[in-house]
Specification:
The complex is a heterodimer. Chain A has 5 helices and 18 strands. Chain A is of the alpha+beta class. Chain A folds into 2 domains: 90 residues, no CATH class; 176 residues, Jelly Rolls (Sandwich), CATH 2.60.120. The longest helix of chain A is centred in the first third of the chain and has 25 residues. The N and C termini of chain A lie far apart (75 Å). The relative contact order of chain A is 0.13. Chain B is mainly α. Chain B has 2 domains: 365 residues, no CATH class; 95 residues, no CATH class. In chain B, a hairpin with a 2-residue loop joins strand 6 and strand 7. Chain B is globular, with a radius of gyration of 25 Å. The mean pLDDT of chain B is 94. The chains are: A alpha+beta, B mainly alpha.
């Protein structure tokens, strides 16, 4: 009988192979200290405004630690999607690729230790004319509620508060504050908006108990559509117990579209053609947010015109 | 591959194994932060400790219903035995005798002791049933499972129930094998201890009854002594039925009054346990249906592959032996009782430990610890497999022409050589996993990095705060504030009592109230990381720590602080 001898050899080989596998996997680069080596190459490769993406995504905190806010501005880290970016740098380890950039074309690559920095170009980048999250502020925006009619004043020194696990996203110091308490504010924040818990920067817009909360932007240059996303903390909407949230958009007083977010939709996209308003140099755009039952409706949306 | 008749030398080996396990665990406990559940049990143990102090000072007052209820109501959703041991250890070993350098170790020591006892018992059972080589290998293989090693440090019930489950099954096995009065009584007492440790013990009667029935079927099929088997089974099961609840009752003062109502509440808590979040292949499961493959996949991803392969080998080797024995018994060629059908019993113990966790309605919040009482039995089969390989190695060595090499066939060299080859990886993986036990994955899935890429849970329970105390002690200004995220308050406070974390650092419960924010990574908690970004105006972590280059915990620092 040969098989006992074969089994003996196979198990000894397995033991040694697992030990070798342990050393290979546990010492596989990059280690924590290796990420610092990216500082100079990324500074050389990255052009102003270019998106930097890390693959695998779990390495991103290490890249953010090494490269800082300048390379990873909040608006890029918590982007709505990649459609607006002309180019991106992908920092890749272990040969991983970012699925988000799968439609981009590789135009260059550079190896830096255990990393590969790939320059990628978007074959059809969107031309964003105006970003409503960036544009929130007293210069162009105002906020009011409809029932009761009330103005929501802008402040830059509101109390910053965060809701913790299962609570609301952080309400920043600079925001429009509506009557009814801190939940009723319009301000830029970041939510974990779908099952993947990806960060999404958006305008917090909790619907009021009655009526609508209206965010009005004046002097907005328009493209051909208003496009955006809406959602809320996945941990809240995954229960699928809340009422739908309605978002209506008016341009110069005319409603151009109405969109509804239902629990379970996640970070869902909407797009509304501007029709006769397309290409205007200056328009007034209003976002109306409401819900039949406002309980736990931590709605947050982002939009641009392109 | 028959068992050995145990002697005092086996007791000595078992004691040495237990001692070594305890020394290693106590030596490494200081690096390990406190898990959430430990924090809750510290709180409960302190309440029980005060009752014990009252008991020693004024027994009459301690037995007043009000005194019992107020002390034992705390954490009454879990039985009292192990928390009582935490309390007594803290009271006697720490407050009276000052045995440990850190307060927290005194709470952890009873579980550490039981981990040592469990490993020793695995040796004894393995040696008795399958020979000393099998027993020794099984004991080491169990200890060198990284998740077992991690849990063995904790002031929790998970490793204690592994030992109590093992003890109760061992006593039952002995009762079925040897009969008499001693082992049935031991089985009843051990079942009571298991009942008072954790609700996993509820599976023991199912295991014991099913096993007894199968033994009776076997006797019918093979012409065995059905009456004797029935007598032994009834003695053991009867003792478990009577002594088990009595021991539990005697050792859990909470159920001394309103017994059935309180037991009902205890059972209801676990039968209707809430669902927590657990990431599995990139998706967080938080409500039924849970993935049926979670338990088998996580076992394969966290138990050393060579140990699992040896388990499969041991199973195969023993299955072949059992089939041969059965056929011989049917043919009337053997009449001797096998003595408990050990292989079947071990296999059933594994099956019942996993049974609940492949059901789609069972919550999977606790990672691998919930079916951990199967691991000693997996190790025992692995020991049987290793023992068979040693016998094969000896045969092969005897065939060699060189006399000097042939000599190795007789002594322990063959076993030692094979042990080195088969245990090197489990030892290396276990040693390197500390203090990141829940982040550790085997090379089969690419280690910690591979598991992160696959979307397997990187950590839970908030215990990794212990791994960043050096950073906090160095960077947090005097009386500075830290958002403790998933760390339980008593766990945070214990780090300060231990002297591991500066006492002036103030833990706070909201990110916006702090200057530093901990973030223990779990997929469903990422929203809290984003809360820190907005509150502090930065996405740049000030500090990142984890296992083998994989981030597990990171810290944000408010700009300008």
């Amino acid at each position: 009988m040969k098989w006992p001898r074969v089994a003996l050899g196979a198990f000894v080989a397995l033991g040694i192979a697992e030990l070798a596998g342990f050393f290979v996997t546990s010492r596989r680069k990059p280690d924590f200290s290796d990420w610092a080596a990216l500082v100079a190459p990324v500074a050389e490769e990255r052009k102003q405004g270019e998106l930097v993406v890390v693959a695998p995504s779990w390495g991103e905190p290490l890249a953010r630690q090494a490269l800082g806010d300048e390379v990873f501005p909040l608006r890029d880290v918590a982007r709505p999607d990649v459609s607006r970016y002309r180019a991106a740098l992908e920092i890749s380890a272990f040969g991983e690729r970012s699925p988000e950039l799968s439609g981009f074309r590789e135009t260059g690559r550079r190896e830096v230790g255990p990393f590969v920095i790939r320059r990628l170009e978007n074959p059809s980048p969107a031309e964003v004319v105006f970003d409503f999250v960036d544009g929130l502020g007293p210069a162009q925006a105002s906020v009011r509620t409809t029932n009761p009619e009330a103005e929501c004043p802008w402040t830059t020194n509101a109390r910053v508060i965060a809701g913790g696990l299962g609570g609301h996203p952080t309400f920043p110091a600079a925001r429009f504050e509506c009557p009814g308490g801190p939940f009723f504010n319009i301000g830029p924040t970041v939510i974990a908006a779908d099952e993947a818990f990806r960060p999404r920067r958006c305008l917090f817009a909790h619907p009021p108990a009655r009526g609508e909360v209206v965010t009005r932007f004046a002097g907005v240059p328009l493209g051909s559509v208003i496009r955006g996303h809406g959602g809320m903390y996945w941990i809240i909407e995954r229960e699928r117990k809340g009422a739908p949230v309605a978002l209506a958009v008016r341009v110069d007083g005319e409603e151009i579209g109405r969109w509804e977010h239902r629990d379970g939709d996640g970070w869902a996209a909407f797009e509304m053609p501007l029709g006769v308003h397309a290409g205007k140099k200056s328009a007034t755009v209003e976002f109306f947010v409401s819900s039949k039952n406002h309980a736990h409706r931590h709605f947050c949306f982002e939009a641009d015109t392109r | 591959m028959s068992g050995a008749k145990l002697t005092w030398k086996d007791d000595l080996v078992a004691a040495l194994l237990a001692g070594l396990v305890m020394v290693l665990l106590v030596a490494t406990v200081g690096d390990l932060g406190y898990a959430r559940d430990e924090g809750f049990y510290f709180h409960a143990a302190d309440s029980y400790r005060r009752w014990f102090e009252l008991l020693f000072a004024n027994p009459r007052a301690a037995f007043e219903p009000k005194a019992i209820d107020s002390a034992w109501r705390v954490n009454s959703e879990h039985p009292g035995l192990i928390k009582s041991l935490f309390a007594l250890s803290n009271l006697l070993l720490q407050k009276k005798w000052h045995l440990f350098a850190m307060e927290g170790t005194s709470y952890r020591f009873p579980a550490i002791f039981l981990a040592g006892a469990g490993v020793a018992l695995v040796y004894r059972w393995g040696a008795e049933a399958r020979g000393r080589i099998a027993g020794l290998f099984a004991a080491i293989a169990l200890f060198c499972m990284p998740r077992f090693f991690y849990n063995a440090h904790l002031a929790c019930f998970d490793v204690p129930i592994v030992t109590m489950f093992l003890l109760a099954t061992y006593c039952f096995w002995k009762a079925m094998r040897e009969g008499g009065r001693r082992w049935p009584i031991a089985a009843g007492l051990a079942f009571g201890l298991a009942l008072d440790t954790k609700h996993n013990a509820w599976f023991l009667p199912i295991l014991a009854v099913t096993f007894a029935l199968l033994c009776l079927v076997r006797d019918r099929l093979t012409g065995g002594d059905t009456k004797e088997t029935l007598r032994r089974a009834m003695a053991a099961l009867g003792a478990m039925a009577v002594l088990g609840p009595l021991v539990m009752y005697a050792l859990w003062p909470w159920i001394w009054r309103d017994t059935f109502a309180r037991l009902g509440a205890y059972a209801s808590f676990h039968l209707n346990h809430e669902y927590y979040n657990m990431e599995f292949f990139g998706r967080t499961y938080w409500t039924p249906p849970m993935p049926r493959l979670y338990a088998p996949v996580m076992t394969a991803a966290t138990v050393p592959t060579v140990t699992l392969a040896l388990f499969a080998l041991g199973l195969g080797v023993r299955a072949r032996a059992r089939i041969q024995a059965f056929l011989r018994a049917r043919a009337g060629k053997i009449t001797r009782r096998d003595g408990g059908e050990t292989d079947l019993f071990w296999l059933m113990a594994i099956g019942i430990s996993y049974g609940a966790w492949v059901l789609p309605k069972t919550p999977i919040f606790g990672g691998t610890k919930h079916w951990m009482q199967a691991y000693p039995f997996i190790a025992l089969f692995a020991g049987a497999g290793a023992s068979w390989l040693v016998s094969v190695a000896r045969v092969e060595l005897r065939k060699l022409s060189a006399a000097t090499i042939r000599r190795f066939a007789r002594g322990p060299a063959a076993a030692m050589g094979l042990f080195a080859a088969l245990l090197a990886a489990p030892i290396a993986e276990t040693a390197a996993s500390h203090p990141w036990g829940l982040s550790n994955y085997v090379p089969l899935v690419g280690g910690a990095k591979g598991a992160a890429t696959l979307g397997l849970n990187r950590s839970f329970w908030g215990y990794t705060t212990g791994a960043v105390v050096d950073y906090l002690n160095r960077e947090v200004p005097k009386s500075g504030t830290v958002y403790i995220h998933d760390t339980a308050w008593p766990s945070w406070e214990m780090l300060q009592k231990d002297g591991r974390l500066r006492k002036d650092i103030r833990g706070v419960g909201a990110v916006h109230e702090a200057d530093f924010a901990l973030y223990h990574h779990e997929q469903h908690m990422q929203g809290q990381e984003y809360q820190a970004w907005v509150a502090y105006g930065t996405v740049q972590p000030a500090h990142v720590a984890g296992l083998h280059g994989t981030p597990v915990i990171w810290i944000y620092r408010r700009k300008g602080r």
